Amino acid sequence: MKYEIKKFNDGQVTAKIIEGGNLDLKIRGNSYQDLFTIAAIKEAWDAENAMHKNAVAILTILCLIGQRSDRRFHKAESFDLKVIANFINSMKFDKVSILHPHSPISLALIANSEMISHFQYVEKTFKALGHPVLVSPDAGAYKTTHEIAEKLAADLVPSNKVRINGAPVISIQGDVKGKECLIVDDLADGGRTFKFLAEALKAQGATKVFLYVTHAQFNYGFEELKESIDHIYCTNSFKDITDTYVTQYAVL
Ligand SMILES: O=P(O)(O)OC[C@H]1O[C@H](OP(=O)(O)OP(=O)(O)O)[C@H](O)[C@@H]1O
Question: Which domain of life is it from (predicted)?
């Protein structure tokens, strides 16, 4: 399958199918633009395949926009992940694979979806660092990090996070004295969760603190992390980062 994308001067996106066959699209999916582009491709593909019902359409989303908005936070506010999921569902893909979604709600809302595990990236990091203690930063991350720790036979220290006026307040439930720690989570936005956690781990005697996140957004506060986190490991699902402080695994 081959296609062509054109952009009009007013921002409109249009797609043209050049060669037929199964559709296998891989996108960051971290912008509405990305979603509209695949909607155009899928619409053109459907029109071309109206007579060939056995062709298959698969979508891979590396960093789903709105994945954190997995509930209606306040009355009268929009439930954004539901809006995004409804739009993706309207395209009727046969399979939608999503890399390390923030919560299972993405999978529940998006039809025919399945999770792509981040295990291989954590495993590479864990081995490169020489088997550090894994740290899960909050209840949301605990389940998947616990599963990964079991598979790696790694020690796991859970920590709890509550946000007070937006700022994370941390409590660590384990002994990290004299140990190297690897915090494992799905995404970093400003990174304050990890800055506070790394400071707390070091205050409790951790010798080094590393961070793994699948979706390295770092929309703000990136430089500050260098004060408490020794090195960051991530994928390029959200963006490419050129900084020796960061090791990125290519997924795109
Ligand atoms: O880089 P930061 O700005 O610190 O944000 C990163 C944290 O935020 C997200 O969790 P969130 O608090 O949204 O989890 P929730 O679903 O439990 O509210 C994410 O899973 C990280 O733990």
Answer: Bacteria
Place of tokens 């389940």: 143
Give the pLDDT confidence of 138-185 residue by residue, as tens digits: 988 999 999 999 999 999 999 998 888 888 789 999 999 999 999 999
ipTM of the modeled complex: 0.96
The residues, ordered by sequence, that sit 6+ positions from 225 with a Cβ below 8 Å of its Cβ are: 191, 194, 195, 198, 211, 232
State in Å: Cα 48 to ligand 1 middle. 42
Closest CA to 120 of 136, 105, 100, 91: 100
- Distance from the CA of 141 to the center of ligand 1, in angstroms? 9
Residue nearest to atom 9 of ligand 1 (CA): 187
Of 64, 102, 184, 218, which is best to mutate to test ligand 1, by the most ligand atoms within 8 angstroms of its C-beta? Answer: 102
Closest CA to 96 of 60, 127, 72: 60
Atom of ligand 1 nearest to the CA of 187: 19
According to CATH, the topology of domain 118-249 is Rossmann fold (3.40.50)
Residue 72 has phi, psi (to 5 degrees) of: -85, 105
**Residue located nearest, by CA, to atom 11 of ligand 1:** 68
Q: Which part of the chain is CATH 3.40.50.2020?
A: 2-116, 118-249
Ligand 1 proximity of 68 Cβ (cutoff 6 Å): yes
Task: With 0.80 as the threshold, say if the pTM is over it.
Answer: yes
User: Which ligand 1 atom lies nearest to the CA of residue 168?
Assistant: 4
For the Cβ of 66 lying below 6 angstroms from any atom of ligand 1, the answer is no
